[in-house]
Design a protein that fits this description.
By secondary structure, the protein is α+β, with helices and mostly antiparallel strands. It is rod-shaped and about 115 Å long.
Length: 428
């Protein structure tokens, strides 16, 4: 058989494709013509549908097939490990699994007509050459073993890539929600995940009844659903027992109706993924820049906190709608002083201040109508009017007098925000 002198590049490809044509199972059967295996590898790599997967991804594969087919044995653990490594390498290069399978099946198909001539060169092959059927069966078995190992390598590599990407995403979400890190670095990391932090964002924080661990495992599924439904870039994470969605706003922004719809959509996605109804959904104010996300998250958390203190109905709460309450809370010292001076006399009532404060809450929520307040409290009108009279006696302010309602209203609101009288007032 004539040989030809290949180029330096051909010689390198021959070594890659054949794994070295001598050296037994790890490198190829002794005396196997490396040129033939090289030609098969090049022909398989040049075939259509291989997605750019070249002969280098056949490194060591053809000698393994040849040895197994010629000796009628299965792949050993070392050979399986080498095939798994080829799968990892294919995943690292971004070659599609279908292209990897096509490449290796094509190489086995092209090796088949060469087997009768090559089988006798393999150490350990029987003295009597096997028949075509035996060779074909052994070749298919070897190809099956090799492709199984390749698939395991591909799957392992892709799983590791997913885990690494998830770790990067989690770290980024945690950093932007906390507002930590260099701005330029945050911008670069976010762009790699498809999020433009320089634009305006809002954070939608979903309060659930689920444990934090389960919420944390579900953030990617929620993210995909929110992105599909609202058509906006979304990055989702979990922090401080909340499911937090960072949403990039369109250039025109979203008005209150659009933000409420966004909150409903996010809550619906969380409900679908977690299988439980969210308690409330807080929407922060829109802010731009890397650290604007942290400000919006703070807005959303404060909105949820105020809604809980005020016993607002479950559902969506916008930070913009609760600004007046947040302003009151920021001057905490003055609020404590007002509640203490106006409402602390109610502690002298039989049963304490709590029943009278709840009556005032219901009375003001009912538009200062005693019958409606009685219905809301499940009491008789007489019981409500009696309690209102006790408030007037103890505080000196009449809940029904428009001129005296304002300090009572603000003091009651402050008591809700401070959770008084369930919790003691902070020391002045």
């Amino acid at each position: 058989m004539r040989t030809r002198r290949g180029s330096a590049g051909d010689e390198g490809a021959t070594g890659a494709a054949t794994g070295g044509a001598s050296g037994g199972a790890s490198g190829g059967p002794a005396g196997a013509p490396a040129r033939v295996l090289h030609e098969v590898a090049l022909a398989a790599g040049a075939g259509s549908g291989t997605g750019g997967a070249g002969a280098e991804l056949l490194s060591g594969y053809l000698p393994v097939l040849l040895r197994a087919a010629a000796t009628g044995t299965r792949l050993d653990e070392g050979e399986r490990g080498r095939c798994r490594e080829l799968g990892v390498e294919a995943a690292r290069r971004g070659v599609a699994p279908s292209a990897v399978v096509r490449l290796h099946l094509s190489a086995a198909r092209l090796l088949w007509p060469r087997l009768p001539a090559l089988a006798g060169t393999v150490p350990g092959a029987p003295a009597e050459p096997p028949g075509a059927q035996e060779l074909g069966t052994a070749l298919l078995q070897a190809a099956e073993d090799a492709l199984t190992a390749l698939a395991e390598g591909l799957a392992d590599a892709r799983q590791r890539a997913v885990q690494e990407e998830e770790a990067v995403r989690r770290a980024l979400v945690d950093d932007v929600l906390r507002g930590q890190g260099d701005v330029a670095t945050l911008l670069q990391r976010a762009e790699q995940l498809g999020l433009r932090l320089a634009a305006h964002h809002v954070v939608v924080a979903v309060q659930t009844r689920e444990r934090t661990a389960r919420v944390s495992r579900s953030v990617v599924r929620v993210q995909e659903e929110v992105r599909a439904r609202c058509g906006l870039p979304v990055l989702t994470g979990s922090r401080q027992d909340l499911l937090a969605c960072v949403v990039t706003l369109p250039p025109a922004g979203l008005g209150p109706p659009g933000l409420r719809e966004l909150a409903r959509t996010t809550a619906a996605c969380a409900r679908h993924v977690l299988g439980t109804e969210p308690v409330r959904t807080g929407v922060g104010r829109a802010h731009a820049g890397a650290h604007g996300v942290a400000r919006s998250f703070t807005d959303a958390r404060e909105a949820l906190d105020v809604a809980e203190r005020l016993h607002l109905p479950e559902g969506a709460v916008l930070a913009d709608d609760l600004l007046v309450y947040r302003v009151l809370l920021r001057d905490r010292e003055a609020m404590v002083e007002l509640v203490g001076s106006v409402l602390s006399p109610l502690t002298a009532a039989r049963g304490g201040a709590a029943p009278l404060v709840r009556t005032l809450e219901a009375y003001f929520a009912a538009g200062a109508v005693a019958t409606r307040a009685a219905h809301a409290l499940g009491l008789s009108v007489r019981a409500v009017t009696y309690r209102l009279g006790r408030v007037r006696e103890l505080t000196g302010c009449s809940p029904g007098d428009p001129d005296q309602q304002l300090p009572l209203r603000i003091a009651v609101l402050g008591a809700q925000l401070l959770r008084w009288p369930e919790e003691p007032l902070p020391p002045g």
